[in-house]
Structure prediction request, 485 residues.
Amino acid sequence: MSSTLPQVADAMRYVLTDVAEEAARQSGFLRRQRKLSGATFVQALVFGWLANPDATAEERAQAAALRGVHISAYGLDKRCTERGAECLRRVLAAAVQRLLIASDPVAIPILRRFCGVYVYDGSVIGLPDALREAWPGCGGSAPTIRSGAALKIGCRLDLLSGELYGPVLKAGREHDRALELGVEELPAGALRVADLGFFDLKLFGLLEHKGGYWLSRFKAGTAVFFEEDGCPDGCPDGCPDGCPDGCPDGCPDGCANASAPRRLEIEAYLKGLAEAGEEYHERRVRLGLKQRLPARLLAVRVPEAVARKRRRRLRFRAKRRQEGQVSAERLELAGWECLITNAPPEMLGVHEAPVLMRARWQIERLFDLWKQHGHLDKTRSQKPHRVLCEVYAKLVGLLIQHWLILSGGGWERAERSLMKAGRTVRRWALALAEALDKPRRLAGVLRSIGRCMAAGCRVAKRRKEPGTAQQLLALTQGRKEAAIA
Prediction:
């Protein structure tokens, strides 16, 4: 039995019973003793939608019946009010604080070089316009945020241990960096991997000060300087003792401007690498006009077909957003996988970094799992607070689903499939509801879920387009597989 199993059982009972009752009182959902308690209300919605993301009111009422409360579908739906939504929001906030990890870390050597490999991402869910005051959207052109109200969901996932922090909620119009994902809580020796929405030089400096590492794509417009001191007028070796032509002061005693680092123009620099025929390149640089953060700049040339596709996408987005011409720097960057990191070469080589950067897609796949299979962004209702109740209840259920995947003992298997594991959890959701207050029976259901996951929740190996786990394993098995897409 997985050592995580008792923790998951305790966390489920605590969140869905003790926390739910307290949240019902604090939110005003439960003012007097009723047939439907706060705990039963939360459990009926969470397990009902976990079992079937498109569950009807009758199906959710059946989940309540499994918890010993017989209530009509109309009576249950009628309680999905503003206070009901606030009750569920409080339950979700408490569930997020229960950080569970797998009993064994994933068996991928490159990930085990670090104390954790934390990937970050956010996603947006559209809400009814009536909720725009509480959850204002950004009015973008994407279908999910076209309405005036939207919810931004942020998560932090440790690829090594499976620890999930989130979902953290913000208004849809908020920037990704506004998501409070606890970067200060990362342990020393951990690696943070995030996309450009989370690019922040000050944060990189904080991580380095705490003994952590970071890996990010290079953001166009970022000031880059050669690490070595040099003359701003072009002296290649830092004006050591004589520089008669490069310095206005003649360098009588060395270079008066030797302490000023030279600016690296990324567009011209990458063009030079291309002309020289280099496919892999790295050098030490400093980032930021003020921060001058020491880093490694890693450049890996992508196939020309990929570069053309990226440039077409850049021009299309610029035209759609009426941003004018795409800068020459961004067009040149499209031909490279250009990364920055403070991890030393012995921990993250220039050939390994692009593959590890691609592993960030694992958290995007988690959001795909939640939306495509958990139908987090779909609803049968048009009532604002009924929709909000559904979103909160589904998020609680999906977080519990992740706990169950960890307790199944399969996280250490590199070839695990979150999609297949999610389907397995949904098949057992009503059995979980019925066994929630019966410890021995609940343990039996959890063991059964684990056996099912071990037997049939794996990703098949692919030759033409190797999966992320295949590519990460190949790094330490003497093979190189394409990682640029």
